[in-house]
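Summary of Year 1 activities. Much of the first year was spent building the evaluation harness for sequence design. The harness presents a backbone, in tokenized form, and records the residue chosen at every position. We chose the following record to illustrate the format because it has been used consistently in internal testing since the harness was completed.
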């Protein structure tokens, strides 16, 4: 038998694979995973922000106006800044009226008008 007479053995041919379909499929899969992860991160951050604002609002509503004026001013300022979601003229006015009472060792008794405006602001929160 002679090898030249054999006709069923062919020379090697390179395999031609169309990789474009696989590249598109993997790209779509990666894009979907990235979008899902980004959505979950965004959702978690917005929930965390809402939780912090709700806690601050609750703390504001629980403020005791009969305690020391300095601690009242301190906690009102902190919690109202966290609880307010937008610029509020009433809150800015209260901050301006509280300014003389801040950053001093001994302060005068807090004016009842300021306390009333603080109470009105707290009542206006949701």
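For this record, the design step produced the sequence shown next.
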């Amino acid at each position: 038998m002679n090898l030249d007479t054999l006709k069923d053995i062919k020379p090697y041919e390179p395999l031609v694979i169309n990789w474009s379909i696989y590249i598109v499929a993997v790209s779509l899969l990666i894009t979907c995973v990235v979008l899902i992860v980004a959505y979950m991160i965004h959702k978690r951050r917005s929930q965390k922000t809402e939780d912090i604002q709700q806690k601050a609002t609750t703390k504001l509503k629980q403020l005791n106006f009969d305690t020391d004026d300095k601690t009242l001013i301190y906690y009102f300022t902190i919690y109202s800044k966290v609880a307010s979601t937008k610029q509020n003229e009433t809150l800015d006015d209260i901050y301006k009226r509280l300014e003389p009472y801040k950053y001093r060792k001994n302060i005068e008794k807090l004016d009842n008008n300021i306390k009333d405006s603080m109470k009105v602001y707290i009542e206006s929160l949701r």
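Residues 69 and 109 are 7 Å apart (CA to CA). Quantitative recovery figures across the full test set are reported in Table 2.
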